[in-house]
Write a structure and sequence with these properties.
The protein has 239 residues and is mostly helical. The protein has eight helices and no strands. α2 packs antiparallel against α4, α5 packs antiparallel against α8 and α6 packs antiparallel against α7. Bound molecules: fe (ii) ion (FE2) (2 copies). The site of one fe (ii) ion has 5 residues, from α6 and α7.
Length: 239
């Protein structure tokens, strides 16, 4: 198998340095990462040779910090996700919603995509706040209890949802939905590019959306590709 036919997700997992390259080219390596690299490049009209050259260069550079989470405890990883990424979402989405409101009120008449962008930002905010609450109140505490029980050689804790794979499947579907909303925001905003001569608020809004996408991809990568598979494997290893 060549790198072109490997899935984006596999490449991100094998080589965390590749994440920087995917961010640079706007390639989704989390929810949308289940497709081969050549297909991901075609979808974004990117020259695959350029992406592969950047991946090869990145693989020779120092290892990205995402790698450290492959060996940390699941409880530490969940705490990191909540303190870093959930906190960022809680802080940033209301700010982006305010930006959207302002930009629509000033430029919505001449830029028909702006009200659509505003509606997607609101939808994303509603989805993410419910999603994160489920992780913080149900799934992550269960994973921590499971890890502790196994460490102490005690029976596995009972979840009201059967196997841990069930809530994980639900969270993964919700990640797909958030990732799809983010992809629509990128498309509607022409890759987060404000029109020529746009005001500073417009620039600030699109820069905020671009940064939000990067954080969302890192966040979902840590959950889909590291925390969740390790939690399923841990549960399977218990008696
Ligand atoms: Fe999360
Ligand atoms: Fe999540």
């Amino acid at each position: 198998m060549t790198i072109a036919t490997q899935t984006v997700r596999e490449i991100a997992l094998e080589n965390p340095a590749s994440i920087r390259v995917f961010e640079q080219f706007g390639i989704d390596y989390c929810c949308g990462g289940r497709i081969p690299l050549d297909e991901a490049c075609a979808n974004r009209s990117l020259a695959i040779s350029e992406v592969i050259a950047a991946l090869e260069k990145a693989s020779k550079e120092p290892v990205a910090q995402a790698d450290e989470w492959a060996s940390a405890s699941l409880s530490e990883l969940a705490t990191h996700i909540v303190n870093t990424h959930h906190a960022y979402v809680n802080r940033e989405l209301p700010r982006l919603a305010q930006f959207a409101k302002k930009v629509v009120s000033r430029h919505g008449d001449t830029r028909p995509e702006l009200p659509l962008i505003q509606a997607k930002v609101v939808e994303l905010g509603e989805e993410m706040s419910q999603h994160q609450a489920k992780e913080e109140l149900i799934l992550f505490p269960h994973i921590s209890r499971l890890e502790k029980a196994i460490h102490e050689n005690k029976p596995k804790p009972e979840g009201c949802f059967g196997t841990v794979a069930n809530p994980i499947a639900m969270m993964t579907r919700e990640h797909d939905s958030a990732g799809a909303l983010m992809a629509e925001l990128r498309k509607l905003s022409h890759d987060f590019t404000p029109p020529v001569g746009a005001c500073p608020t417009y620039h600030g809004f699109y820069t905020g959306l671009r940064e939000f996408e990067q954080d969302l991809h890192q966040h979902i990568h840590l959950e889909n590709n590291i925390l969740f598979p390790r939690a399923i494997a841990l549960e399977g290893s218990a008696a």
